[in-house]
Amino acid sequence: MSSTWGMDWLPELDKRARQRLITDGMEVAFAAGQRVFGLGERCSGLPILHSGSIRVQMLSAAGSEIVLYRILPAQMCTLSIGCLLDEGLYHATAVAERPSEALLVPPAVFDDLMSGSPAFRDMVLRSYGARLQSLMLLVEELAFRRVDARLAELLVDRAEADTVRATHQQLATELGTAREVITRLLGDFEHAGWIERHRGWLRIADPQALARLYAGPETA
């Protein structure tokens, strides 16, 4: 690996891990929209994101998508960890949401550091545990929370000022539902005076009403 980035952006690592990654890690870059890995592919290494954002998602048999998680700077890919540990294949797809750069830890280097660097091993296990908790929350939301409440929360979370720039399909993918469901719910929200819809974006007119919807009693 070149010394373009150095290793200060991963302060948890010990000297042994830093030196091994400088020597044998690989800097990789992805354009916005480029696939990072695909369903059924073998893992080529553990990506640790340096900059950008990578979306990991699954596609159902019916053709609907759901976002499992995002990899942000200094974060690892949980599915890659699992594939490296059990030498399995990917069960999801990852796509760069914007121009992204990552440090790719090859399988042999991953195995060596897991056994020889306590700091690296702890960083991997902490990342894996934290992501597992977030995925459990996702399962809980999909199973027990109404889609309208989840959509209201997503709109409030994604708003910049009072604007959300996303298509109906992008919102559907985030929530793991059909585009038609999102279109219908947004129509209901607009009729209630909570939002104003425009092509490719919407304005939140009543964030308090949306907040009341997702903060209220949750029913399946």
Automatic annotation (TrEMBL):
Entry annotated with the keyword Ligase: no
UniProt KW Transcription regulation keyword: yes
Pfam families per record: cNMP_binding, HTH_Crp_2
Annotated signal sequence range: none
Residues covered by the Cyclic nucleotide-binding domain: 9-131
Gene Ontology CC annotations of this record: cytosol
The HTH crp-type domain, residue ranges: 145-208
Recorded GO MF terms: DNA binding; DNA-binding transcription factor activity
Coiled coil: none
Record key words, sorted: DNA-binding, Transcription, Transcription regulation
Protein's UniProt name: Global nitrogen regulator
Species this chain originates from: wastewater metagenome
